[in-house]
Amino acid sequence: MNNIVKPFEETFKSKDAYDLVADAGDIAMDAIIDDGVLDGVPIIGAIKGLYKVTKNYQTFRLMKKIHRFIFITHDTTIEERMNFISEYTEKNKEDGCEVLLALLDRLDNTNKVNILTNLMKAKIKEEISIEDFIRLCAVLERIPFSDINELQKYKEDYYENGSTDILLSAGVLSNTVIDANDTNKYRLNSLGVMLLKHGLQQDVDVEIKDSTHLSDFDWHEM
């Protein structure tokens, strides 16, 4: 990982590298590997070199995720990206480019890159804090992509076997209803709302409850 952090940082602050990815468009990995379309992008060239030597599939996936990351964030400026990475470095107390690169490597689904970039842009626009960005990145890692798409169901009190347990353990739901006659219900908390609104870019109208309520239930004589 250490030998690709520097190329990633060089790419992060290069207008030419971002423009090259934007001009090439959302091209297939075969074109990147075989045709050398993006060899001029430092991080793509570095990872491509590693992949050609190792033929490691994880390296291939990282190249795919980084290409998508750059392509989706090409509408950000160098100043915006460098301000972001500076604040990210300060909060993490280590190299922000290294932390971001490691995060991209750990994401288990390339579609999560879209969510990550949306969150990064939300931070750049000051719609969320750097602390919330870091928390939401940790949440993003923990939730399977299929369950992330279930978030919108929890705008109201809700329970679904499987997804509720995953989302609750990830920290994006709160228990809002205790029901003696049925399953307890859960709703998005503030972190869940931010993930849905800024990560998935969905319209969110949620009344966040700060307490748990008892559902009405019938008493039966013993």
Structure write-up:
- It is a single chain.
- With 222 residues, the protein is mainly α.
- The protein is built from twelve helices and three strands, in the order αααααααααααββαβ.
- The protein has a three-stranded mixed sheet.
- A hairpin with a 6-residue loop joins β1 and β2.
- The protein is elongated, with a radius of gyration of 21 Å.
State the end-to-end CA separation.
66 Å
Q: Could you tell me the strand content as a percent range?
A: 5-15%
Determine the number of helices (DSSP H or I, runs of at least 4 residues). 12
| Subunit arrangement of the protein | single chain
Instruction: Write down how many β-strands occur, each being a DSSP E stretch of 2 or more residues.
Output: 3
Structural class from helices and strands? mainly alpha
- Helix amount, in percent? 55-70%
The topology string of helices and strands comes to HHHHHHHHHHHEEHE
Low-confidence stretches: 217-222
- In one word, what is the shape? elongated
- Rg value: 21 Å
Give, in spatial order, the strands making up the sheet with the most strands: 2-1-3
Largest sheet: 3 strands, mixed
Average the pLDDT over all residues and give the rounded result. 89
Outline:
The chain has helices at 2-12, 15-24, 29-35, 42-54, 57-72, 78-92, 96-106, 112-124, 130-142, 145-148, 163-170, 190-199; strands spanning 173-178, 185-188, 213-214. The protein is mostly helical and 222 residues long.
